[in-house]
Design goal:
4-stranded mixed β-sheet, 3 domains, Rossmann fold, alpha/beta, binds nicotinamide-adenine-dinucleotide, globular, Rna Polymerase Sigma Factor, Chain: A, binds magnesium ion, single chain, 17 helices, 7-stranded parallel β-sheet
């Protein structure tokens, strides 16, 4: 029996995780569930899944959450400190499924406490990769990747010393074949309608710009300790091959599976064992063909921006990710166009001086400076 805490329980990854937990009552017991603002949904999930604790990050929602949970036996908590403290409470596994840099503090708290973290929240690792891997090394905590490409690599990775290259696949997103002119006019509704995966709004837009793949290169660098020049991307529209490891002898090992996040989540939940899932089985005869192509960095400049940030290191990945969060938020609110997202990120990076980051305080400062700069570039573009 594993005890599990789910950070970001009301999201897409949270829902898939709770689905698997509910199907396996003999394997898992829920300790805590958390959410950002949706106290109603959080209370409902805590009750149906029998969690002991429910934490709402937005402090002003405490009373409402506590009232919704009265008589249920679930303890209500609220605020950033309660979130980090709950993440550090002893369990066998913390599923880190908050979106954005907001997930950094609780995820880091879990790692510092020595708890195994099943990580979906890539932005936390991107803004503070060195701090997170160092914390894990100090406490002996493991990070198990949930992100499908990284979970794929994790499954086929023997020894980093023997690899030539790691390749992450990308579906290419909903605008894979669109021209720049066509992309200039796409709506948020079109951007979040991903062809293969059902995901939260932010990562859906990131998949459409290919920023997601760029963020994933940075994520892979931290997770597997591989130099940037040995990390590559291949566009694979069918999303059935999730990641490939090429070894020095020329062998290539790939992981395949249906495009359903419950597969990598189940792998992380059950690891080092495996458990059955209710997903549709992969049928290659029905799939028919598998296509691969080079990504187009002219139509998808966000990928090149992320690659440059990875190569530069220091504060660049954190600034890139923070600016991207602001720009994606503004696009989803209809304030800027789709192509403005990468433009705002580029302008933000150009405006900020490169600097090393070695403390959480420095990460927070870079994050805040990048958000402030990105907001001003968004405002400038929104006025046009
Ligand atoms: P989502 O938007 O569906 O859910 C996000 C969760 O985070 C919600 O529970 C929300 O309440 C919580 N949250 C948001 N802001 C918060 C804040 N300020 N403080 C505390 N909690 C907050 O997102 P998602 O699609 O489930 O993605 C979650 C993470 O997993 C992201 O980092 C994403 O990149 C990654 N990921 C998602 C998928 C997927 O299929 N959805 C696949 C790979 C990786
Ligand atoms: Mg992914």
């Amino acid at each position: 029996m594993k005890t599990v805490t789910v950070l970001g329980a009301t999201g897409s990854i949270g829902a898939s995780t709770l689905d698997l937990v509910a199907r396996n009552p003999d394997r898992f017991r829920l300790h805590a569930v958390t959410a950002g603002r949706d106290w109603e949904r959080l209370a409902e999930l805590a009750r149906t899944h029998g969690a002991r604790v429910a934490v709402i990050a937005e402090e002003s929602h405490y009373e409402r959450l506590a009232e919704a949970l009265s008589g249920s036996g679930v303890e209500a908590r609220a605020g950033a400190a309660a979130l980090a403290q709950t993440a550090a409470e002893p369990v066998d596994l913390v599923v880190a499924a908050i979106v954005g840099a907001a997930g950094l503090a609780p995820t880091l708290a879990a790692l510092e406490a020595g708890t195994t973290v099943a990580l979906a929240n890539k932005e936390a690792l991107i803004c503070a990769g060195e701090l997170m891997t160092a914390a894990a090394a100090r406490s002996g905590a493991r990070i198990l990747p949930i992100d499908s490409e990284h979970n794929a690599i994790f499954q086929v990775l023997e020894d980093v010393e023997r690899i030539a290259r790691i390749v992450l696949t990308a579906s290419g997103g909903p605008f894979r074949t669109l021209s720049l002119n066509e992309m200039a006019r796409v709506t948020p509704e079109q951007a979040v309608r991903h062809p293969n995966w059902s995901m939260g709004a932010k990562i859906s837009v990131d998949s459409a710009t290919l920023m997601n793949k760029g963020l994933e290169l940075i994520e892979a660098h931290h997770l597997f300790g591989v130099a940037p020049d040995r990390l590559g991307v291949l566009v694979h529209p069918q999303s059935l091959v999730h990641g490939l490891v090429e070894y020095v002898d020329g062998s290539v090992l790939a992981q395949m599976g249906p495009a359903d996040m419950r597969v990598p989540i189940a792998h992380a939940l059950a690891w080092p064992e495996r458990m059955p899932t209710p997903v549709d089985r992969l049928c290659l005869a029905t799939a028919g063909r598998l296509d691969f192509e080079e990504p187009d960095r002219t139509r998808f400049p966000a990928l090149a921006l992320a690659e440059a940030a990875l190569a530069a290191g220091g504060c660049r990945p954190c600034a890139l990710s923070a600016a991207n969060e602001v720009a994606v938020g503004a696009f989803l609110e209809g304030r800027i166009g789709f192509l403005d997202i990468a433009a705002v990120v580029e302008e933000t990076l150009a405006a900020l001086p490169p600097a090393p980051v070695s403390t959480l305080q420095e990460v927070a400062e870079v994050d805040a400076a990048a958000r402030a700069a990105a907001r001003s570039f968004v405002a400038h573009r929104a006025r046009r």
